[in-house]
Amino acid sequence: MSSRRSIVTIGMHDESQALLQELDEDFFGSPDDSASASSGASAHARSAGDSDVSDETSSGEHTPPAAQRVDPGSPGDDSDDDLEESFFSETDDVFQDEPPDVDVESRDDQLSALVEAEVRDLFHIGCKCVGLNHYSDLQSQREVLVRLMTSLQTLDKKCLKQYILGELAACILPATAAAAERRYKYKILGVTVCAKVFRDVHGVGEHTLKTLKQLVASGTAAIPRHGNVMFTPHNALSGETISKTVQFLRSYGNTYGLPQPAAPRGRSAVPPVYLPASHKKTEMHKSCVSALEKLQPPETLGYTSFRKIWKLHVPELRVMTPRTDVCAHCDRLRGEVSAAKTEEVTITAMDNLKKHTELALTEREFYRSSIAGAACEENDAEYSHHTFDFAQQLELPAHTREVGPLYFLVKYRVQLFGICEEARHKQSNYLFAEHQAIGADGKKAHGPNSVLSMLHHYLQTSNTVKRILCLHADNCTGQNKNKSTLAYLSWRCFTRRSDRITLSFMRVGHTRCAVDGYFGLIKQKWRKSENDTLADVKRAVNTSAGPNEAILYSWSWREWDEYLAQFYKPLKGIRKYQHFTVCKDDPGYVSCRESPEGESTRVKILRDDVEAPAADTLPPELHPPGLSQARRDYLQAKLVPFFSNDAQENLPWV
Asked: Which residue(s) pair with 421 in the sheet?
């Protein structure tokens, strides 16, 4: 680390700076002493576990060499012996004597982005102090706080604790006879804060802070050395065993894994690799152990140590659950790679898979950059970013204990449509039951008229919507990617309701976004609550998470499809484009692109033979027809007995 001494002086008080200067040689030592500083550990990881890594995974003076991914060779024989030999081949590029070059600038950018996201969440959640929010006092120094936390996360554990000792020494209050123990006035960047904010910024837990305070109170200026520091446990794993295990896991992922183009938002900077759900960790452990036993001398590896090595060194490799969604195109291309018989076919299949994942990664980066731009304070008054999508429908009644016969009945359906503003951590969830849908018995609930009616209501009533909009949605043609949606956005600009609108679609199979995350929180709450009425549904949504807000049916359905068809014509080849832009300065035209940086094609969608739409005219309203008599009879005879007694007196469809 080239700037070890400078990074610890950011935001320090004069007293703590003087103390650290005196202790400089003690806790920095020679450059070799700080070579083990972790560059990617998060503050939450340090606070979650203050103890050192298990001796089984960090013993000895050896560290596993940095591993790189390698392309799997041709399948060959399927026997276990050949498979194990391929995973531990000495000619494999994964097993290297020297670690590869590390892109330090890229790594620092990724760490800074993670810290910025962490700070944003901390400011949003607050410190939970009664009547106070000490994070608001740091709002004016937010950028300096991000730099400070980024610098602290680059320190190893010993340096971090020594730094905190200096801070505590400057924060301690004079001793009094009445106080049983010394008290502290915590400060960050010269601002008085609570203990929780102090711990969050420094990335330590309550136990660690308490221990350091005891050291300060006792007058000890140095971090005591643990008694087992100079000793290696008799059952410690060798560096070669750890390296071979890491090599096995990475090669196993290359052979059977399904790589993803990007990591889920806020989790990690490394894209995950999913193993099929049929692959069990216990079976992988047995295969690894059988291969390690062939080494000279043979090594043993317990299941717990195997999982610790996996979690520590190959966290991006995961076993998917049976419900994990994957891209069908990725899965097919991955199958072609596994089934390839010759080197030429393997190279071609790998190139196709790489091109597809790069396209998906480009779309994901554009999605993230759009959110970051909307969250930037400089663009706060210019544009806002929103993502909309339907969730899986909810069904009533829904109880934590479901009786058997209820499983076979067609329950009363409630639709959930979400519009998320990621920059502000807010999601509006539109709820409407099947008797409130545009069609009879809940039909046409996902059509363009439904989507545009709720989207129009949101854009007209939300106080956070800007004149310039950036919208994201999935590639569903029936709901989002159709002529009516493009016509509606053009109509908004034509009638001066918006200045410019960009509508983007992520690649099919790679559409996971923040709105799905909030849907997941709703489903978690839904499974743990008793729901019989629409009021129960609203309460479950509102209490699932702070950003979730439920909006029961109160808007008007409108005939957008036929109304807009009078003025706008369909866009030919709409499915091949992923990005569409309309502007008030270019009315009636849409700019289409196949990728974020692709060539733009300007197409006119406004009809020439009709008058332009009036700014003060809206489509005619559509009134829900309700439930048919057959559906009412079914609900009354089959479903009503399973509702609670209170709900039976106030059924939603009556």
From this structure: 426
Q: What percent of the chain has pLDDT over 90?
A: 28
- Mark 189-203 as b/e (b = at least 16 C-beta within 10 Å): bebebbbbbbbbbbb
Per-residue pLDDT averaged across 162-186, rounded?
77
DSSP label at residue 189: T
66 Cβ partners below 8 Å, 6+ apart? Answer: 96, 99, 100, 102
pLDDT digits (tens, 9 = 90+) for 351-401: 888 888 888 888 888 888 888 888 876 545 578 899 999 998 999 999 888
Side chain identity at 639, as an amino acid letter? L
The pLDDT, as a whole number, for residue 598 is 87
What mean pLDDT value characterizes the chain? 78
The span from the CA of 335 to the CA of 375, in Å, is 40
Comparing CA positions, the residue from 194, 185, 206 lying closest to residue 131 is 194
CA distance 104 to 109: 9
> Does residue 431 sit in helix, strand or coil?
strand
Are 594 and 573 a contacting pair, CB within 8 Å?
Answer: no
| DSSP annotation of 553 | S
Three-state SS string over 573-593 comes to CHHHCCEEEEECCCCCEEEEE
Question: What are 577-581's contacts with CB under 8 Å, separation 24+?
Answer: 577/601, 578/363, 578/504, 578/505, 578/506, 578/507, 579/502, 579/503, 579/504, 579/505, 580/486, 580/489, 580/502, 580/503, 580/504, 581/500, 581/501, 581/502, 581/503
384 residue type, one letter: S
Residue 9 has pLDDT above 70, yes or no: no
Residue 90 has pLDDT above 90, yes or no: no
How would you classify the pairing of strands 426-433 and 412-421? Answer: antiparallel
Is the C-alpha dihedral spanning 111, 361, 70, 293 positive or negative? positive
